[in-house]
Queue: 3 jobs
Job 1
Amino acid sequence: MPILECNKLTKTYGGVTALDHIDLAIDPGRIVGLLGPNGSGKTTLIKLAAGLLQPTEGQILIDGKAPSPQTNAVLSYLPERIALSQWMKVTQVLDFFCDFYKDFDRQAAEQMLAQLHIAPNQVLKQMSKGTKEKVQLILAMSRKAKLYLLDEPEAALSVTGQLALLARLRILVQNGSQFIIASHSPVLTAYPDAAIYQFSHAG
């Protein structure tokens, strides 16, 4: 059964069509890249899969089910924008994720923080935008999810950060996880065994 399946999936915003009758089936055990320019519908597809948007027409299924709290329990979503409480320290954010997500791997999060030279006691509001994005990516990658939906994960990463991301990605894929990664960067094509879906429509 495909981990993600789209049947004539369409999403419009007013008079603008972001996705136009998309048919797509992504089998388990794959790293899938959604590659294309801004405005081509990549983020819309990610949000539909996460249950944050509803289709205008057609259907999207996650592991054979419509997006719901049940499917959200098995996926980890990295949004395109920062969605963290700015007053918290990194350690407090880790505490929150440990309490909120049963599958959160704190040891993996602390290891990635060290690899990216992020101080655990630093307050988020004192960080640069890029560092906050790194923390948010670490949080998403530290869950033991069945499906990962990552929107522009490499945007704030240096070469060292991309290597750390790839190392964690390989571990999770070996453990049976699947990745759907939206990007406008050709770096995505360098991911091992990645299947690339090109988005060209600019809505």
Job 2
Amino acid sequence: NVTVEAPDGLRANVSSAVNGWLDSGFWKLTKRNNILFFSPDELASQLAKQFPKLEAIKISKDLPHALIISAGERKPIGILCLADERCFYFDKTGIAFSETQPSSGFLILNIIDQRSRELKLGDEVIVQDWLSNITKAKELLAKLDVNVSEFVIPADSFDEFYAKTSEGWRILFSNATDIEKQISALTIFLKEKITPSQRAGLQYIDLRIQDRIYYK
């Protein structure tokens, strides 16, 4: 007997996949007939690959003949688009779990990765330090009332990215320098070093070099 606790839209398919997995094998040596000995981790790994939208998959045995599978559904915090224009929803862990269309809104985190690379469902959209820095930059910029439409990783980037603001200018960042320090420098610059008319005519502010700000 298999009990599946999963989001409504996935429950039937997950249940079918689990039963198919349990029935696989040779002759009568199926996993269903050997519930004591099969690996829950193996089944969880299989389900994660087959259903990228699932998160926190837990499998427990209710001996002698029952299994309980529980899983949640990943929630999108952002969209990443590649140079080939394929776009993916990703969750707080950075996992790509569903293809989607580009977004131009300010509420969700939008990342454009112009580097040539492959990405498939279940992969990390970008490595964790990049995602952490970009997420932190969006959060801190919002506190400055600087709205960002998207973050862009240039095609030739090694450790740099930039933010495109709703005002039309860019903010250049580097992963090699602490993001909070870069935003702190930006805060002082916007409040004390530039006039409203100068801000209106900005093209970019470059924060990539520690203790230096360049702008045009």
Job 3
Amino acid sequence: MLKYPVKLIFFYFIISINQNSIAHEFWIEPEEFHIKNNEVFKANLFVGENFQGSLISFSNKYLKKAFYYSGINKIKKRINGRLGDIPAINIRELENGINIIQIETGMNYVNYKNLLKFELFTRKKGYPEAILQHKENNYPVNFNESYIRYAKSLVTKNGFEGSDIDTDLEIEIIVLDNPFMNTDKNKRILIEFQNNPLINHQVSVTSIIKDQLKIEFFRTNQKGIINYKFKKNHKYLIDSIVLIKGSNKKKDQYAKWHSLWASSTFFIPKQ
């Protein structure tokens, strides 16, 4: 497994160009990651970076799928809400142990008016070859990219027993080992695309404790896995994307590229 240092100067240069066009992670951020007894679980949805971004309210149009998996058998239940709800997610029926919150958005689009923004975005996300492919395909400088976002969050009620599972998202992050228990050991994190492991694929892990932010980049091994040791009292956002050719059809605004974004959030308590 390869590990890359964070290039903060380059990172902030990217943000300064256009945060919405280039960097648009989508994640679930619970008000409390670990609840007890009769507490109502509440979570916000964000688009942005570094655990800072724009709030997304509940909308059936924007949220194509919204489910949670609860209990030992991870029973799948729909997340219901009202248009405009903030927090977007409100659940009263979480079961004891680990619960998985799952969100899939509908198709969205971003327009690039020059290749610099696209090149910076693709290099940051692990696709440095994309700009050359764009030119070889004689794609225009002004073009559309389509994208779909997939987000998970691991939360608990009355204890930390249980596990993450494969919820059959098109691109998905699966924490194979319980991240809340035996925190002195490395945990395996699997990245899948269309239910197949992504090999030698870039994954970023953002962690924060108080106001101290850390971003790390990794490549998956031959099994699509990275190994990571989580720290107590840290909040985590794991993310990865897949970039493929767009449909280039009218129904998809003639998008030349299509990206699929995966994220997973959780908080390791002091216990």
